[in-house]
Amino acid sequence: MKGIIVGLGGWGSSWVEIVRDLGWEIAAWVDVNPAALENAVSSLGANPEACFGTLDEALERTHADAAFIFTPPMCGRAKNIISAMDAGLHLLVEKPLTTSLDELHAILKRHEGSPLKVMVGQNYRYFPSSALMREVGSGKLGRLGYMNVLYHMAESMPGHHMAEIPDALALGMCVHHLDTMRFVIGADPETVCAETWNPPWSWSKGDACVRAAFRFPGGVRVGYFAGWAAHRSETDWFGHWTLECENGSLFTDGVDSTIVSGGEEKKIAGAKIDARHTRAGVLREFTSAIEEDRTPECSVEDNAKSLGMAFAIIESARRREEIACKF
User: Fold this and answer.
1) C-alpha torsion angle, residues 27, 32, 33, 35 (rounded to 10)
2) Does residue 281 lie in a domain region?
3) For a Cys staple, 151 with which of 46, 120, 226, 279, CB 3.0–4.6 Å?
4) Quick check: helix, strand or coil at residue 200?
5) Residue 292 domain-assigned?
6) pLDDT tens per residue, range 180-212
7) 292: three-class secondary structure by DSSP
8) Distance of alpha carbon 205 from alpha carbon 235, whole angstroms
């Protein structure tokens, strides 16, 4: 199959090898920045005649089966998504799908009733630890009672596009953990009570700390803290997860895990994996969904629920009260 890559910055470029390794032919390369296109030619082997400044140009002059949208969300991502769907292309889109509720609704409306496969790259579902947590959340240790999730990183990205998004932490990073919560529990939250704030030394223009309490069906509670204004890293990007169940508990840091049950402690050593491995899982699922003509995991409709949790955090913090999570 042939794909158009839109967005060739550092993150978009890092997808190129994954796309090629899984058998995709790159039909066109798109970026508004001429330097990014020049780098694609010199470093990634792009055909200069297949390089374009806009997706619309690429759609006019090339044929493809799908588009991979890797641009920052504020750089015309929603417009590119709708243009690609209008051209009949399947879509794999980096998260966050969008940072605007209006754009989210427009994308969902355009996709309604469409046979096109539109998937969002929520790669945390493809960590081995996520599969283990889902087993436990599904009853391996009895009924799940509550979860604690901690994400605490010493990040500093002044000048990065994430520093410009008002709610970058909630929409750009927390959405990974929120999607994983839904995946592990197998349900959508009912309510959330949250607050967000920005320490005086933060590099981000938006709030760099989030604290939230979710209530899921069956009385399951999730306590969540995320922050990236620390002076040292206490977790990795995946975070630290604790699941407390009727017959035991599970702790994982995304690599190594510990299960306590019946008075015994079992340690499970995992292999450290990087984003390349988990993004390959995303692309395999996307490719299979096209070939098998089925709805992909992390479809645009499913992802709207994870992104909706992030918007609910923002709204709850603004209103300073517990609110219903309505998607």
Assistant:
1) 30
2) no
3) 226
4) coil
5) no
6) 999 999 999 999 999 999 999 887 788 999 999
7) helix
8) 23
Same domain, 175 and 263: yes
Amino acid at 193: C
Cβ(124)–Cβ(278) below 8 Å: yes
Closest to 279 in 3D by CA, of 144, 164, 120: 120
Nearest alpha-carbon partner for 67 in 173, 221, 57: 57
Q: How far apart are CA 270 and CA 252, in angstroms?
A: 10
* pLDDT per position as a tens digit, 258-296: 999 998 999 999 887 777 789 999 999 999 999 999 999
Read off the pTM: 0.94
Q: What is the CATH number of the domain that holds 64?
A: 3.40.50.720
Residue 311 sits in the same domain as residue 181:
yes
Record the tokens describing residue 175, joined without a space. Answer: 């959405």
Q: Do 59 and 163 lie in a common domain? A: no
Where does residue 292 rank: exposed (0-12), middle (13-18), buried (19+ CB within 10 A)?
Answer: exposed
């994308």: which residue's tokens? 107
Coil vs helix vs strand at 143: coil
Q: Identify the CA nearest to 69 among candidates 156, 140, 149, 3.
A: 3
State which residues form the domain around 197: 124-273+307-324
